[in-house]
Specification:
Blueprint (H helix, E strand, L loop, with lengths): L15 E2 L2 H6 L10 H6 L6 E2 L6 H6 L13 E7 L2 E6 L15 H4 L29 H6 L23 H6 L14 H17 L5 H5 L17 H18 L21 H12 L7 H7 L11 E2 L4 H22 L23 H14 L11 E2 L1 H4 L4 H15 L5 H24 L7 H15 L4 H20 L16 H35 L18 H4 L4 H14 L17 H9 L3 H4 L5 H22 L15 H30 L4 H18 L2 H8 L8 H11 L3 H16 L10 H18 L13 E3 L8 H9 L3 E6 L2 E4 L2 H13 L5 H16 L4
Parallel strand pairs: 5-6, 7-8
Antiparallel strand pairs: 1-2, 3-4, 8-9
Protein name: Zn(2)-C6 fungal-type domain-containing protein
Pfam families: Zn_clus
Keywords: Metal-binding, Nucleus, Transcription, Transcription regulation, Zinc
Length: 865
């Protein structure tokens, strides 16, 4: 390639490419210095060259198109069109990823060391490769077609500069360093950029053909027919590629780590994928029509359900305008602000955002109310009015968008998942920017409520990036809550007059105080749940929680001041222990610290007639905190049941005694909850409370981190003796463990599919792994057992069943699992297969699908056949 007369002087072995300005604008460049475009626009022009040295002889001999490119080792290059390349990786027979840039061992002296990760059943994954062992970046250049074998006169190098749109990925994942050994690395996003650019070019048919083609290949060298690929085919390829990356990143989840785990630092940056999915869907007017079709007819009315007010046209316009700015901010954050907006190219900027129709948004809000509101009560007055939200500020819009995203997670379709994940990432970045610009907003209840909803969305999203960020930012948001003074005690509301106008003001004041109390204790519940499922200690301390517990639901759901005052009088008549003075004052509830002190001093029956489901759920937080502390101490000893040296230290004996005390407190809690459960058998919160109780009780008699280590075969030699010892370290009381696991499955199976708590699939996962380890210990070659007694299904009987009680006391009985009319004994393969079927019985969500894939991979790794 000869330099143009008057242009950049030749450099030995270097090939000139488009200058920086033309590459950023994705326009043609004559490669002069200055080039004609920069000279016309009076821009500083800087020459650029290909990063690898080229061979002149090979360049002149190579005149064929890129479709005849030679194949890389272990790599197949397909040229579907001159606009884009799709690089497919070969997958090993065992189902693990194979590196796409394996270096010839003869050149390196020894084969490069690779770490393989489970493929989760994928057949192909685009852009999967490892950096070169010497950190030289040779693999990067090879992939970007800048090595000698790929250069030819016909190649237009400017389309390779699409990489410049994603500088944040290069900064996040440098192509050197000992810690970067996972095959899923940053070139993934270059291919996505090319595919996205190709899709954008094809979709904008109104642009001039020459202008559209100049963004990808030189028009003089490309036939028009090669640009006529169907749009839906390109969209499908891009969508499948992005989904494959998200699935592959499941190995970096902070929970459900039963298979070989990926370090979070090597996790693909899936957040930009979600944003670009939402951006791409907004390029077509009919993109959300399938959502309208999926929701079908209107839902059946439910008793006592919070109603949703329809959106008016002004509210929708405001949502669109504010969401547009939020998405721009998020895209600029991930792209480093280099998305060209000064080039004058109208197609380089982001198009207008398109949201689903109003009826679909209302459906998502009703879905949020149905799935989340029963467990986190923050909606007052039995009505959610999005129009009232929009009368406030951008913080209220953030909260409304997060509600829509939460509701969209319950719809098992690609469009709903795209909307949920895109809005989650958009709101996360905007939430952080809002707090950064005005630190006083860190104490704003709307902001803290938005942070709460994002934490729930991210932690249970099934996306590794969001899950890790939500867990990392949880401590920051809890510190904001604490520093805002919301954990401190507050005075009681006193009704001083019967004047209607004064009563209205007092009701509003009570609502404001009550909403803060509910916000605080919703954070307490989230803190306890994340601590339980991630096997970590809670952030909040019981001595800090001095704010009064939320009052009765009848007061909170009152629609006006008159209805509220009537509910106050009724509450005082039914719960006289709450009221200090007048029957006209709202009941004064204790703080969680006071409530737990009463439990420790055995004063619950004397001071409290009957606890509400919310109060019972809050009491699980200090119990979980105590148990977590004791489990951490016991894990420091060589063996749970006794030391290998035959010694039992004073510290260990006292810790075991305290563990028995916590188990006694758990039993007290269960007795109080059973009283309410018998009176209200269909209460969803009570069912969820009982599931959490059984999971906490399992932590007292099992070591779940040790179970997951065994599942990953860490420090495991495969012998029967080693397996028997490991099973004993995992489960200390097998009979009780089977009882609690069976009750977890029974309770979740009895819940309605569309209103289960968001962590239900993680609960099934924990029960599945404990049952699986127990079934391993029952194999004939591990521990032959002579079982006798009556057969009973652990996942179908009530806790007071005689067969179950006999099994717990004497060990007599044959525990089985049930699947309809079929009963089967505990066998590793059948246990995992049954729990996978249970995951299919609920609403398909990204996290439940991911857990199902993890259990399937575990079953393959430990197949007993």
């Amino acid at each position: 390639m000869q330099p143009v007369s008057g242009g950049v002087p030749p450099v030995a072995g270097r090939t000139p490419i488009a200058c920086i300005n033309c590459a950023s604008a994705k326009t043609g460049c004559d490669k002069r210095v200055p080039c004609s475009r920069c000279a016309e626009k009076n821009l500083p022009c800087e020459a650029r060259f290909a990063r690898r040295t080229a061979k002149a002889a090979h360049r002149q001999a190579s005149s064929s198109s890129l479709s005849t490119v030679s194949t890389l080792p272990h790599t197949k290059i397909e040229m579907n069109s001159p606009e884009r390349m799709i690089r497919k990786e070969s997958i090993s027979e065992s189902g693990n990823f194979r590196s796409g840039n394996t270096v010839d061992p003869q050149l390196q002296g020894s084969p490069p060391k690779k770490q393989e990760y489970p493929s989760h059943g994928l057949s192909t994954v685009t852009d999967v490769f490892m950096p070169s062992p010497d950190g030289s970046g040779h693999a990067m250049d090879t992939f970007m077609c800048l090595n000698d074998e790929f250069l030819s006169e016909e190649v237009n190098y400017q389309d390779l500069m699409i990489w410049n749109q994603y500088p944040s990925e290069l900064e996040m994942y440098p192509n050197s360093g000992p810690e970067l050994h996972h095959p899923l690395e940053i070139p993934t996003f270059m291919e996505l950029a090319e595919a996205s650019s190709s899709l954008e070019t094809t979709a904008n048919g109104s642009l001039d053909t020459a202008q559209s083609m100049s963004r990808t290949r030189t028009t003089s060298e490309t036939s028009q027919a090669e640009y006529e690929r169907p749009l839906n085919q390109i969209e499908l390829e891009v969508s499948n590629t992005r989904e494959a990356i998200i699935i592959a990143a499941e190995a970096a989840w902070p929970l459900a780590r039963c298979n070989l785990a990926m370090p979070s630092g090597s996790c693909p940056r899936t957040a930009i994928i979600h944003l670009e999915n939402l951006e791409q869907h907004s390029r077509h007017e009919s993109t959300w029509k399938l959502l309208d079709h999926n929701i079908g007819p209107s839902e059946e009315a439910r008793q006592n359900e919070v109603s949703v007010v329809p959106l008016n046209s002004r509210t929708r316009d405001r949502i669109l305008a504010i969401t547009q700015s939020f998405l721009h901010t998020a895209l600029e954050t991930h792209r480093g602000g280099l998305k060209d907006s000064k080039s004058g190219n109208p197609d380089s900027a982001f198009n207008y955002l398109v949201l689903p129709p109003s009826n679909v948004l209302e459906y998502f809000l009703r879905s949020y109310v149905r799935s989340l509101a029963p467990y986190y009560t923050l909606i007052s007055g039995s009505m959610l009015d999005p129009n009232e939200f929009m009368l406030n500020n951008q913080a209220s819009t953030l909260l409304l968008l997060l509600m829509i995203a939460q509701g969209a997670t319950a719809l098992p379709s690609a469009e709903a998942r795209c909307l949920a994940a895109g809005l989650t990432e958009t709101c996360r970045i905007s939430l952080f920017h809002v707090i950064e610009k005005d630190v006083e907003l860190s104490a704003d209840p709307i902001i803290l409520r938005s942070a709460l909803l994002f934490t729930i969305l991210g932690a249970w999203s099934g996306d590794a990036w969001h899950m890790n960020i939500a867990m990392g930012q949880r401590g920051m948001y809890l510190s904001m809550l604490k520093h805002a003074g919301m954990l401190e005690p507050c005075p009681q509301i006193i009704i001083s007059s019967n004047d209607p106008s004064s009563r209205e003001l007092q009701w509003r004041a009570w609502q404001q105080r009550e909403s803060r109390s509910r916000l605080v204790y919703n954070w307490v519940m989230v803190d306890q749940e994340l601590s339980l499922f991630h096997d970590t200690a809670p952030f909040l301390s019981i001595t800090e929680l001095e704010r009064p517990i939320p009052g009765p639901e009848s007061l909170w759901l009152a629609k006006n001041a008159t209805e509220w005052l009537t509910a106050v009088q009724q509450s005082n008549n039914t719960t006289p222990w709450m009221t200090p003075n007048s029957a006209c004052n709202p009941p004064l509830t204790p703080s969680l610290c006071d409530l737990f002190q009463d439990m420790l001093h055995d004063n619950m029956n004397r001071r409290h007639d009957q606890l509400s489901p919310l109060q019972l759920k809050l009491l699980l937080h200090p119990l979980q905190s105590l148990l977590c502390h004791l489990r951490q101490v016991l894990s420091c000893f060589s063996d749970f049941s006794g030391s290998h040296r035959g010694q039992r230290t004073v510290t260990k004996a006292s810790t075991l005694l305290r563990l028995e005390e916590v188990q006694s407190l758990l039993q007290k809690w269960y007795e109080m909850c059973a009283v309410y459960s018998k009176a209200n058998p269909n209460c969803p919160v009570t069912r969820a409370n009982l599931v959490l109780y059984h999971l906490i009780s399992l932590n007292a008699i099992t070591s779940f981190p040790e179970i997951e280590r065994l599942a990953r075969k860490e420090a495991f030699d495969g012998s029967s003796r080693e397996l028997s010892l490991r099973c004993k370290r995992c489960i200390h009381q097998p009979e009780e463990a089977l009882f609690h696991c069976g009750q977890v499955i029974r309770l979740i199976s009895a819940m309605p599919r569309d209103s289960r708590p968001h962590w239900w699939s993680a609960a099934i996962y924990r029960a599945a792994l404990i049952l699986w380890v127990e079934s391993l210990s029952r194999l004939p070659n591990i521990s032959p057992r002579m079982e006798k007694g009556q057969v009973f299904a652990i996942d179908a009987v009530m806790p007071d069943n005689p067969s179950l009680v006999s099994y717990l006391w004497s060990g007599e009985g044959i525990p089985v699992l049930t699947n309809g009319e079929r009963h089967f004994k505990l066998h590793p393969d059948e246990v995992l297969s049954h729990c996978i079927d249970l995951l299919d019985q609920g609403v398909s969500m990204r996290i439940s699908d991911g857990i199902k894939r993890k259990l399937q991979t575990l079953s393959q790794n430990w197949s007993m056949e």
